[in-house]
Design goal:
The chain is an alpha+beta fold and 420 residues long. It has helices at 3-13, 15-53, 77-82, 167-172, 209-216, 234-245, 258-298, 300-308, 313-329, 331-352, 366-375, 383-410, 413-418, and strands spanning 56-61, 87-96, 121-125, 146-150, 162-166, 180-183, 186-195, 204-208, 223-228, 249-252. The chain has 2 domains: 3-49 and 261-418, no CATH class; 57-253, no CATH class.
Length: 420
């Protein structure tokens, strides 16, 4: 009887055992693949986002938070910042939310305070700046902001009373491109509808900064996003701005604001998913060690007979190793299907457990931004995932077979034949 025949016969005769092993290995394999994909996806997105954030400086009134809607900067601050050394572009941001009170800042968890949900958020941005930074837009193109109808705001709109309206607000108020909309008593024309992953974005109205400032009679913006020419100029630019603006304003570098909070929140997710992926590997290997140890213990006499009739250690090794790999391989399809089926749900659970922290504009808190990144992770069975799954399954089989193999190779035929 060939080794292949023996292996198949031994695996097939314990069908309940084989099914149990396949399910257990499949679950461990799926956990590893899911967490590995989450880890890889976040890591790539984090690297891209951090690279885009590294040359953006935030300027606000001293002690203010983004949600201190009544705290406006002096209108001349933006002009001073724009003429500062190293500065290439300035984005003025005006945020108004009549009826809302976030004077204490955004609560832990990234959700608005109780009782403050029924409000409309208005945002004024510079449409003629090259910074390309908006509270609901992105840094360097990183955003889920999408125009769903009409058009986006552009440089020609800077002094016009036009607006972009979030999809949920538009749906609630039956608005379409071309519809008039009243903003604090001033009539604007809707030129486009948009959707965004932000928890507030779908209900917000975005206007050119000058028109928004006039509508709300604001003395100046709530904050400025300042773009410098190169990351190497960042430190010098921050020092110059602090000197120019004085103690009345907080000038925050990415490492102190977006970079720190962003890296902290995402870093915790990355380390957690990596640890859990490693734990899944350890569990899968442990399952195979236990199973193969039981298999070899139950067949001690059979192994003794094989060695007594002339089977060398190499043939015994090949049989036990092949059985371990075959048993583990039965868990591969289960693991792959489970990865595709429950991967997105696991990603959402991981996102909801992420520790939120502030980011530029406050809306880009760690928990929310993490959720958006996780939402982009693909759980399809790609060639890379298939190869990784096969490698892990084979690895489980090999690791699980090592102990019984070493035990079998050390056994003496006479002792094995006396085993009941």
């Amino acid at each position: 009887m060939t080794i292949a025949t023996r292996v198949w016969r031994n695996v097939a005769r314990g069908r309940a055992r084989t099914l149990g092993v396949a399910v257990a290995v499949g679950i461990a394999l799926s956990a590893f693949l899911i967490l590995s994909q989450i880890n890889t996806g976040i890591g790539a997105s984090v690297a891209s986002a951090e690279a885009a954030l590294q040359d953006v400086i935030t300027v606000q009134s001293a002690g203010a938070s983004t949600f201190s809607f009544n705290t406006h900067m002096n209108g001349s601050a933006a002009s001073k910042v724009a003429t500062a050394p190293y500065v290439t572009s300035v984005q003025r941001i005006l945020i108004e939310a009549p009826g809302a009170n976030f004077s204490g800042g955004m609560p832990s968890g990234g959700s608005p305070p109780s009782g403050s949900a029924n409000f409309t958020l208005y945002q004024g941005i510079d449409t003629d700046t090259s910074a390309g930074i908006g509270l609901f837009g992105g840094f360097g193109g990183e955003s889920s902001f999408t125009i769903t109808a009409g058009r986006d705001l552009d440089a020609a709109d800077e002094n016009s009373q036009v607006a972009l309206v979030g999809s949920s607000y538009a749906s609630d108020h039956s608005l379409v491109p071309g519809s008039p909309i009243s903003v604090n008593g001033t009539t604007f024309q809707v030129v486009g509808l948009y959707s965004t992953g932000s928890m507030f974005g779908g209900g917000a109205i975005i206007m050119p900064y000058p028109a928004a400032q006039a509508a709300f009679a604001a003395s100046g913006p709530n904050l400025l996003y300042v773009l410098v020419g190169a990351a190497s100029d960042l430190s010098a630019a921050v020092q110059d701005l602090r000197t120019i603006l004085g103690s009345s304003y907080d000038v925050t570098a990415p490492s102190e604001d977006a970079g720190g909070g962003f890296a902290s929140a995402l870093g915790s997710v990355l380390s957690s998913t990596q640890f859990e992926a490693d734990a899944a590997l350890a569990v899968g290997a442990a399952i195979m060690v236990v199973v193969m140890a039981l298999v070899s213990a139950q067949r001690t006499r059979e192994i003794g007979v094989m060695k007594a009739i002339g089977f060398g250690n190499s043939r015994v090794l090949a049989q036990l190793l092949s059985e371990g790999i075959l048993l583990s391989a039965f868990g591969l399809p289960i693991g792959l299907l489970a990865t595709v089926w429950i991967g997105p749900s696991v990603a959402q659970i991981v996102a909801s457990s992420a520790t939120p922290s502030g980011g530029p504009g406050g809306f880009r808190g760690g928990g929310f931004f993490t959720a958006r990144l996780l939402g982009r992770v693909s759980f399809a069975i790609t060639p890379e995932v298939l190869v990784l799954g096969i490698a892990v399954a084979v690895g489980f089989g090999i690791l699980g077979s090592l102990y019984p193999i070493m035990k079998a190779l050390r056994s003496r035929p006479a002792e094995a034949l006396r085993h009941e």
